[in-house]
């Protein structure tokens, strides 16, 4: 079995808001345990408010959980200081293609940014690598000089993927990465992700409310509801014989 | 890749590009720019080549109406009004511009820190801004003048104090909007340091807000300078500023109305022009946010 990249061990995240009597608590993640292995995609599905996005930000090390541990390559993921130490190893492809790239920057520079952050070099110093990455995501390298608003949603999402891949990360979080695209473009992007994963061998957490997309590319699926993982199974098994009542409801709705 | 960017015919000279940019504004804003340009050029000519004569020399009878010899009439001491007007325009514009530059720097720094950092530091900056904002502007200005002593410095400090809170708040809000964007999160995850994110991403994306708010601050600045000089806490005699001239003019409003009308008119024109440019800038920078069908 391949190496475990990311591991969540009984992670609980609680949001507290308000003061005094108005104080309220919301448990966004309750004892969530999951792991992502190298070359594997774990699909995370669930309705809005089920805790998917909180799980993503915890897995990315952006939010410290209330209890439980998050391990990345066997080490506790820790706070912002450790984030600088493991920069380049974790990347993300965000949801909205409108805001996944800085609108004031040629997209080529956006792709180069994670590389520049690694060694403190200039954004313009990585032209060759950017060209290479754009080819990998099947875009014309000349597009590097364009601004995001000059590209289509699908092209922008490809750029976002190129940007995520540029440092050869071990782990990528796709947070609703295809939800904002239309269906034919979605299929292209999903195929692209599958091909790139075969090439690069990164572990992926693919968050989506779209069960069809998840079925297409995830190796295993975790179903979240009200902050808990109610079922975690291999994709094939899950779609044939969902065990949990809620999973069945989800599949019937499909 | 830089090569690719440059090949796209962006090699025109800076001047040419600046001209094209200005030419792309709407008619109203262009008229406003011309108005300001004419005012400024006239003031500059007055300063450099003595256009209209000396602003302090007594040249003719007291309170003479506008004529060929004294195009804007003379004041209560028999000084020609035209050179005093030009000097006043220069003082007012320069003073306000310097003050607004200061404001822009302070407000941008505070606003970005408050908006990006949030938390206690951000809250503190915003609350201090709110307190300053809650003060009536002119009372604040008089307070400053009382502490610093009337003069250029007092006017400068007052303008900064009056304009900083609003601009800080606007910059802070714009920053908060940008800070939520996915590309900032991506940059954070990629390990880009906070100062780099602030300058590379945040500053660039709020530059429109800064330009727009800076323009509005400029019109407020001219107003504050005018008010302060009018009350006698700003620019002092024998210097000249638009506010000071209006104040002098009030004494002879009936007998020599040109003394108050001309500086007042210029004051109104300048503020109107700057506000029109501000509106045009806002139209240019802000709709980009909301449109989805582009």
Alpha carbon gyration radius of chain B:
23 Å
Query: What's the architecture of chain B in CATH terms?
Result: Orthogonal Bundle
What is the CATH T-level topology of the largest domain in chain A? Rossmann fold
CATH architecture of the largest domain in chain A: 3-Layer(aba) Sandwich
Shape of chain A: globular
Strand fraction of chain A: 25-35%
Report the strand count of chain A.
10
What's the Cα radius of gyration of chain A? 18 Å
Give the structural class of chain B. mainly alpha
Tally of discrete structural domains of chain A: 2
Number of helices, where a helix is a run of at least 4 consecutive DSSP H or I residues of chain B:
12
| Helix vs. strand class of chain A | alpha/beta
Q: Approximately how much helix is present in the residues of chain B? A: over 70%
The pLDDT mean of chain B sits at: 82
Count of alpha and pi helical runs of chain A: 9
Query: Helicity level of chain A, as a percent range?
Result: 25-40%
- Record the strand order, biggest sheet of chain A: 6-7-8-3-9-10
Q: Beta-strand percentage of chain B?
A: under 5%
Oligomer designation: heterodimer
Main location (chain B): membrane
Membrane topology (chain B): Multi-pass membrane protein
Protein name (chain B): Peptide ABC transporter permease
InterPro entries (chain B): BP-dependent_transpt_permease, MetI-like, MetI-like_sf
